[in-house]
Amino acid sequence: MKAAEDFGPWLARQLKNAGKSQTDLADDLGVTRAAVSAWIVGRSVPRDDTIRRIAEVLNTDLETIHTRSADAQLGLPVSWYHRPAHADGGREYGNAAAFAFEADVEVLAREATQNSLDARLDPAEPVRVRYTLHHLSGEAVARFREAIDWESLLPHYDALTADNGKQGKVARTIAGGLRDMYQSHRLVLLRIDDYNATGLTGGDYDDGIFAAVVRRQLDSQKRDLGAGGSYGLGKATLWATSRLGLVLMNSTLSEPYEGRTERRLIGRLDLPWREVDGREFAGPAWFGRPDSTTKSADVARSWWADEETVEKLYLTRESAAPGTSFLIVGAHDVASRVPAKDTEDDVEVEENEHDAVLRMHARLVDALGRNFWAAMTGGGDHKPHLEASVRTYIDGDLVRDEDVDPVVTQPSRTRALRSFLEGTTVDRLTGPGQVARAAVTLNVPLHGGQVRGGVSHEAVVLVTTAEDADGRSNRLVSMRGNRMTVKDSAVTNLPIGTNPFQAILLTGRAAGPDAPGAEAAEEFLRASEPPEHDKWGQTEELRLAYSPSAYRRIAALTTAANTVVRDLVAVPRAKRRNGGEAKIAGRLKVGGAAKKPRPTTAAVQPELDNVDALIDETGAWSVTVDLRVPSGVDTDRPVTPVAKFDVRSGPRPAAPWKDLVAISGCEVVDGALQLLPGSRKAVFRGVTDVSRHPVRAQLTGLVVELRVGKGEQA
Q1: CA angle in degrees (0–180, nearest 5) for 48-52-53
Q2: How many other CB atoms sit within 10 Å of the CB of residue 114?
Q3: How far apart are CA 603 and CA 139, in angstroms?
Q4: What angle, 0 to 180 degrees and rounded to 10, lies between the N-to-C axes of helices 33-41 and 22-29?
Q5: Which candidate, 77, 75, 72, places its Cα nearest to that of 10?
Q6: From residue 259, how far is each of 12, 362, 455 by CA, in Å?
Q7: Which tens digit of pLDDT belongs to each residue from 460-490?
Q8: Which of 32, 193, 541, 624 is the most exposed place for a label (fewest CB within 10 A)?
């Protein structure tokens, strides 16, 4: 078996763990200090008989020394270190960062996967993310508690529950998690693994990814402008999702630390202030090996674990690829939990809890597909940024294993992005399945409060027809370089008759490697995102880095993008009179009977100028009507549009409106149109109530009439 590291660095760490110096080892072995120094710096290696004596001194076996794949057990054992209370008497009753997000697995999936994307190691290959749920019960719960030294934690949990959760929300959440574990003898573990990621690199206390994640708040260590995160808050969702405030970590490093890369373990517990056996503790605690090099030997640092320990902690990784595994102990999902029914049937209670775990599984799949479908899409020479999957075990049995497929979760949007990556877009939509592309400009302002000038960035708008599996249609989804959905908004002011569509706005690096101003756009838009990274708008960072009015550039981008989308989906007027829509046009009549000469003494009335109509997917008539308002029209008199079915004989049955909306030049008041003073044109939109149709719309025509005042027909 190949050694994990050279003998010298390995031996130096064992001496450090055991609190021994090179002189101490030389005395124990009966050799000179120079000989020990030569082993450590790699100038020589000890003889076989000396290695056996070293094994005795370190209280380990020969295999451990020869393979050097794990540390010797001499020295302080792995244990919990609890941070002492502040000397000035200050108290924190929870981690404030955790309250920036909901205890929701959808939020967790968004934040944790974004962090994995930002940590992608090889940009030519996707980062692989797997979410694994373990439902443990009975003896499995007891074995896991033993592995995390539960007995030493119990007094700290008891201190929080002794006052019935009066210390605050965090204490009440933890009390509920303890009750659930003890009364039902069950525990839910949620592990998040990523591969082709940097891992928790760096020292235990120095600036680096490890310290930023494990020991610090508001430290993101993300310097790349294309990174999704920027606040250092997203990691708090890991602890917020644990009803016990406990997360364990196993990292495979992309660059060695202490000569090792595999199975770097640490645990962190986030609890409120508490008093245990007369001692006060500040809040957080760490599960690791006590560090004898610090001022306090009780401080816990990460340790290099053996495979057996990793397996007991449910932290075994699938490969040696760099990345990190986060294990959330006592995982819960507020949004999907359903209270168990009052019953004495143990089987029914167990089935309910299994259902809750499976709901968590389904919500994870949905969240990954909805937020990261673009990152999981490839095309042409472009590989996906991300591969994601979710699996669930119940009492050790695999019950569900799903790869998240963007083609299934977001078929239309995936088709649009793939067409862009493959270079097969068109200028306008002329057939089903096509993807139209257009450019839109973002004027990125300059730093330092300058309100004039800046960098012109050419963003990309994509539009394609919508499919039912996409969910709501007529939406514009916006993103930047890491291709995580940032905004999902409706496109407004669409003309009646617009076919359902989906639109995408690609900004920054997402617009392509050669997009002008991409880097400036990444930095600008990143500064405009709140901690949730779910919109672009005014933020304190944007104000300070650019100017108080910088957010207006984003509003201008949104307006321009919506205008481009409306233009791409607009049906040309000539087309409305051809093909399938000609049948509708032939069945549409304006104003009923032919116009009669108006008496010279009659009051001037508004006139129907143009009507566009179609039968929508619900079977209702949707019409957009243009009114011409001649000079002299009395705008104080209401105008009532009336829709009727055009039957061959007998009176025309009415087609009551379900929706009547004023678009311009008028207002809807009590089901009638009130013309605005001075307007020369008015436009309104109406949709008939299909539940009150006496006959199917497809079988007849439609007549639109105007009634003015007390019912006179215009």
Answers
A1: 120
A2: 21
A3: 89
A4: 120
A5: 72
A6: 11, 41, 46
A7: 999 999 987 788 889 999 999 999 999 999 9
A8: 32
pLDDT tens digits, one per residue of 416-451? 999 999 999 999 888 888 999 999 999 999 887 666
Cα distance between residue 458 and residue 438, in whole Å: 10
Which strand (E) or helix (H) includes residue 406? helix 406-409
Tokens 């179609």 sit on residue: 614
Q: The tokens of 603 are what?
A: 């009051």
CB 216 within 8 A of CB 232: yes
Least confident of 157-171, 312-326, 465-479: 157-171
In the chain, the amino acid numbered 317 is R
* Separation between Cα atoms, residue 605 and residue 635, nearest integer Å: 9
Pairwise CA distance, residues 499 & 504, whole Å = 16
| H helix intervals, 297-341 | 307-312
The answer to whether the predicted template modeling score (pTM) of the entire model surpasses 0.85 is: no
pLDDT tier for residue 713 given thresholds of 50, 70 and 90:
very low
Residue closest to 273 by CA, chosen among 295, 241, 245: 245
393 has which bridge partners?
134, 398
Residue type, 658: K
Per-residue pLDDT tens over the stretch 375-386: 999 998 899 999
The answer to whether residues 45 and 7 touch, using CB atoms and an 8 Å cutoff, is yes
CB atoms within 10 A of CB 176: 15
Nearest to 361 by CA among 121, 106, 554, 136: 106
Nearest residue to 641 (alpha-carbon basis) of 702, 600, 576: 702
Residue for token digits 């794949």? 69
Contact 313, 287 (CB under 8 A): no
**The tokens of 115 are what?**
């962090």
